[in-house]
Amino acid sequence: MEPVYASVVSTARMLWLAQGLKLDISGVENVPADGPGVVAFNHTGYLDFTFAGIPAFLQGRRYVRFMAKKEVFDNPVGGPIMRSLKHIPVDRGNGAESYQAAVDYLKRGELVGVYPEATISRSFELKGFKSGAARMALESGAPLIPTIVWGAQRIWTKGHPRNMGRSGAKIMVGVSEPIQPEGTPAELTARLHESMRAKLTELQDTYGPYPPGEFWVPAARGGGAPTLEEANAMDVADAEKKARKRAERED
């Protein structure tokens, strides 16, 4: 038992109760009861990780060490909490240190949470995956645990205001069968993407109904979210804008 992590979990549960969230958790049996695992989950909003850790907690009160951008750890309030929970800071400009920290955790039998998409998908469909999760699994010998969170984008996502009040939103978390670390990083990443795509489709089909035009509903289901292609173009434009600002600061 880790007192700090346990208290954070209790606080989150009280918050979810106050918000009236309806949690639907499936596939808990696919989380290893002991030993390592790379919990790979999709990224639709800022609170995905809080829900992605639920199946592990239900599987023998296991805790997930999440990888998160280092800016979160720089926050005077959130930083100490993140460090006490043994989460892993990620410097996107130099990821070697965080990658090695994650592999070390895995070799010690921990569960490590990773966003294979790296950044939020504004389409709420799966973007292309980075190979980091697969490489961690191959180096450590840990299985990949494909996990999908659906509905969390209704609470807080990129480009939309937070809705932390009593929304009564439904949040689904589904875990697919573990994927053994075999093959090349590219092959393993492709298998992970396909597994998560299938689970995402399954949860989306079950979730409904989808109000037409709502921002949190994918375009393919009649919602107001951009298509995957449109969202990718927005990401490229954002990256170019950030690059220009960096160049201007350096001049």
From TrEMBL:
Residues of the Phospholipid/glycerol acyltransferase domain: 37-152
Domain of life: Bacteria
SMART domains: PlsC
Ranges for region Disordered: 221-251
GO MF entries: acyltransferase activity
Residue stretches in coiled coil: none
Biased composition annotated in UniProt, kind: Basic residues: 242-251
Keywords: Acyltransferase, Transferase
Family matches, as CDD domains: LPLAT_AGPAT-like
Pfam family, one: Acyltransferase
PANTHER family: 1-ACYL-SN-GLYCEROL-3-PHOSPHATE ACYLTRANSFERASE, POSSIBLE ACYLTRANSFERASE
Protein's UniProt name: 1-acyl-sn-glycerol-3-phosphate acyltransferase
